[in-house]
Design a protein that fits this description.
With 142 residues, this protein is mainly alpha-helical. It has a single domain, classed as Non-ribosomal Peptide Synthetase Peptidyl Carrier Protein, Chain A (Orthogonal Bundle), CATH 1.10.1200.120. The protein is elongated. It has a two-stranded antiparallel ribbon. The chain is 73% helix and 5% strand. It starts with a helix and ends with a helix. α2 crosses α4.
């Protein structure tokens, strides 16, 4: 059973998946920084200097006016954190778009490689062995 597990882990697909997960986690950190450090300030600027991530509605509990989302949660208030949710949607859309572009490019490369293989397969194969032997036999008879 241990050998079967080693064989399973050593398969290329499992290793490719592991590499993909690691790169995906690193990519998520990059997108999070993009949204938090570049997009959020622009949105905040457009909204008159409001920190969009800290936009929430208090559902129950007491929260001081102007308290951040973290402060409201720390106070134990039930909050409807719509700003964080919208930022999560923006993160998702950016990641989905980049993955879409990546898959589109990989598919184009695969399609180009497939066309090259089709061209090689479609090339004339030349005479068969029996045709060559028949030609030699005809030449010898003359």
């Amino acid at each position: 059973m241990l050998q079967e597990f080693k064989d399973f882990i050593a398969k290329g697909n499992v290793m490719d998946m592991a590499v993909g997960i690691i790169i995906g986690a690193a990519f998520t950190a990059i997108v999070k920084s993009l949204v938090d450090d570049l997009i959020n300030p622009i949105i905040g600027l457009l909204m008159g200097g409001v920190d969009f991530v800290n936009q929430y509605i208090v559902l129950s509990g007491e929260v001081a006016d102007g308290a951040s989302l973290a402060d409201a949660r720390e106070a134990g208030a039930a909050v409807f954190a719509y700003g964080s949710f919208i930022m999560a949607i923006i993160n998702f859309l950016i990641i989905a778009f980049v993955v879409f572009m990546l898959v589109k490019r990989v598919n184009a490369i695969k399609e180009a490689a497939s066309k090259d293989e089709d061209v090689v397969e479609a090339a004339p194969a030349g005479p068969t062995d029996s045709e060559l032997l028949q030609g030699i036999l005809d030449a010898v008879k003359k």
